[in-house]
Amino acid sequence: MTALNRKVKFAVIGCGHIGKRHAEMVTRNEESELVALIDVKDKPQLGIDAYPVPFFNSIDEFLATDIEVDVVNIASPNGFHAEQAMKCLEARKHIVVEKPMALNKKDAEKVIFKALQVHRQVFAVMQNRYSPPSVWIKELIESGKLGKIYMVQLNCYWNRDARYYKPESWHGKKDLDGGTLFTQFSHFIDIMYWLFGDITNIQGKFNDFNHQQLTDFEDSGFVSFDFVNGGMGALNYSTAVWNQNLESSMTIIAENGSVKIGGQYMDKVEVCNVKDYEMPELAPTNPGNDYGAYKGSAANHHYVIENVVGVLNGRETITTNALEGLKIVEIIERIYSI
Ligand SMILES: NC(=O)c1ccc[n+]([C@@H]2O[C@H](COP(=O)([O-])OP(=O)(O)OC[C@H]3O[C@@H](n4cnc5c(N)ncnc54)[C@H](O)[C@@H]3O)[C@@H](O)[C@H]2O)c1
After folding, report:
1. In 3D, which of 264, 307, 331 has the Cα closest to residue 101?
2. pLDDT tens digits along 205-233
3. How big, in percent rounded to 5, are the helix, strand and coil portions of the chain?
4. pLDDT tens for residues 170-183?
5. What is the strand order of the sheet 8-13 is part of?
6. Percent of the chain at pLDDT above 70?
7. Which of 85, 190, 279, 294 is the most exposed place for a label (fewest CB within 10 A)?
8. Can you tell me the distance from the alpha carbon of 333 to that of 224, in angstroms, rounded to the nearest whole number?
């Protein structure tokens, strides 16, 4: 792809917590420009006065204007991602789709098929891949120094209670949220897939300990599986933890050593004990996205915008492409269908 030789023009759909981060990161990037914001709520409710661009209440209204736009960033509730992605692609726009790309494999496939048909790019958002411990462990695994992977355990124990699942919110609704693995823990499933590849022979059990009045789905699960490339893994997760997040960690037991990455959003290497290897000093990880009482995943969205601008100017390849976005949706769908 050749360079655009001008700023990349972005619109953002969904101006909540994360949509505002997209707007801010687009505004801060010297090679990009925000041209419109879209949200079903009225503008005064959204706290977006810092962005003096045209505002629309629907994607259709926006796409019917002659405002020039290259990329639409979709940061609406999960259940709208696929439908809005299809509309933007149909209008020949590139898209950045917040996680998850869709709530089922069939919809994610439709988005990819449409993107191929209209020859536009789909960027999935998995910004935890940019955190220093993620970059480091990816390199370590690809170097082969760990040898064969025996066991991988992901523990994701977070607090999400009535302060988060408000009755008016899309969170907790099956059709808009999709479930705990889609909304809370898809980043960790993405990291696991990125490092170790696909999983098979999935077994598990789910429970709803304290979310009966708050969500339409389980709050906890123990899931175990084999990696297609060898070794076995487990994903233990819960949003039923009292008061505050407890941990997000990944423990790797391999032929030549063991590694544990922990912290609230896998931001710290806690153990690295690997044969003939000395752990380098890593840069600090950006703090988590702030949700009032909650911490979410790392605040790395500026890398996502940099990647879009780099790709559209022909300098880079996509960090998280649509096929990977689809794969995470498909893995979660398979876990939920056991
Ligand atoms: N990458 C990450 O780390 C990360 C973190 C949190 C959330 N997310 C994702 O970002 C998306 C938004 O999450 P959030 O926490 O910002 O939610 P939010 O509730 O704070 O914001 C969602 C916004 O979308 C608007 N909206 C609802 N329906 C719409 C529609 N049909 N068209 C346009 N706008 C609509 C709402 O009015 C609201 O302003 C979700 O898909 C979520 O999974 C990603």
Report:
1. 331
2. 999 999 999 999 999 999 999 999 999 99
3. 30, 25, 40
4. 999 999 999 999 99
5. 55-56, 32-38, 8-13, 71-74, 94-97, 122-124
6. 96
7. 279
8. 15
What span, in angstroms and rounded, lies between the C-alpha atoms of 242 and 84? Answer: 36
Asked whether residue 239 is domain-assigned, the answer is: yes
The answer on pLDDT for 291 being more than 70 is no
288 lines ligand 1 (CB under 6 A): no
Amino acid at position 166, single letter: K
In a domain, 320, yes or no: no
Decide: 40 in ligand 1 pocket, CB within 6 A.
yes
Whether residue 20 has pLDDT greater than 50 = yes
- Tell me the residue range of the domain where 240 lies: 132-285
| Residues 295 and 97 sit within 8 Å (Cβ to Cβ) | no
97 close to 328: Cβ distance less than 8 angstroms: no
Pocket test for ligand 1, best of 18, 245, 305 (most atoms within 8 A of CB): 18
For residue 35, give every residue at least 6 positions away whose Cβ sits within 8 Å of its Cβ, in sequence order, or none. 9, 10, 11, 53, 54, 67, 68, 69
Query: Is there a single domain that holds both residue 37 and residue 175?
Result: no
Check if 235 has its Cβ closer than 6 Å to any atom of ligand 1: no
